[in-house]
Amino acid sequence: MRIHDTYEWRRLTPADGHYYFGYYDRCPWNHDQSLHLALRIDQCERLPERGERAEIGVVDRAGTYTPLTSTRAWCHQQGCMSLWLKHRPDCFIYNDFDMDSQRLVSRIYQLGTGVVGEYAVPIYAMSPDGHWGVSLNFSRIPRRGYSYADAVLPWEPQPDLDQEGLFLVDLHTGAVKLIVSYRQMIALHPVPFDLEDMYIWLNHAIFNCDSSRLLWLFRQCSNPLDPSWRTHMYTANIDGSDLMCPLPHFYWNGMISHQIWGRTPREVLIDATWRGKGAEYVVFDERTMPLQATRISRGMGPMAHLIFSPDGTKMLADSYPDSFGFQQLGLVDVATGGITRLGHFRHFRGKGYCVDTRCDLHPRWSPDGKTVTVDSIHDGRRGIYMLEL
Q1: Which SUPFAM superfamilies does the UniProt entry name for this protein (predicted)?
Q2: What is the CATH number of the domain that holds 181?
């Protein structure tokens, strides 16, 4: 079955295994857009076990895959957070579990050489200017589809409120600094007494378009082994100042699935079902209180991963599988709100299906805005698919 009758999608990775990149809020292409980062894994039926490795490699535009190294810090949804370094164009970073220190680190891999260094903490995301990374405690993330098997959950429901939180990493020097502590977040929490006896953690940190601010999620649940969580979205300058909670749980409450920075330094893009007419794609300025949203487009399906094109004129939007097992990918014209269907992907759910090992499309732009890649199991095995617009 073709993905689209008109658009020429091509499976970029081989059919000899499961390949993917990971999340949608980061760029997998190197500086000249000739190499795409990829992971190769042996299975998609269960969560990773302690000690289980994923292979890291690169694939060129002709579909030639080259294995390079491996990692014990990976998950089915976000991979190992691999990213190309801007100040070292032949190097990329990836998270790994260090056996000697028994902790998570981010290693630096140089093409043609191998591992040439590391950062003392795992990197969650990189700033667009390439100078900064953001880190958090992966061990506290309870949902294993978004965390690492070797990052074992702690027994304590709450961390050290003054020593843990969101960390800024200087990717040039390796310096690590706590910029916002849990205690600071709790002091700004809309309902602080709701945190009593709750397990709390951070997730989904990302830099804005000009590398000046960070956005992340503060989550809480009563049982991390069976989490049903509440979400509060926080933002701050990269030095920790101007801390805000622009999107408390009241706005989420099952009505928002994904969030990302928008086209300007204070714009946030989300999908929301606030009107009860299905998910719609909306933006708002984080500084405006109470929140005032502007609709970009009607929605295309549930649980959309949204991301603006590099020039801000278009937007990619995917969906979770519908009742027939198909995922949609759309191209949104920002000026008109019109949606062009780019693809119709099959999503297999076999016996013993595990939701945390599902394969979301996670659409990603190339830096020049001319190429789109997604992760899909359209042909029965997880692979990276490419469309040149």
Answers
A1: DPP6 N-terminal domain-like
A2: 2.130.10.10
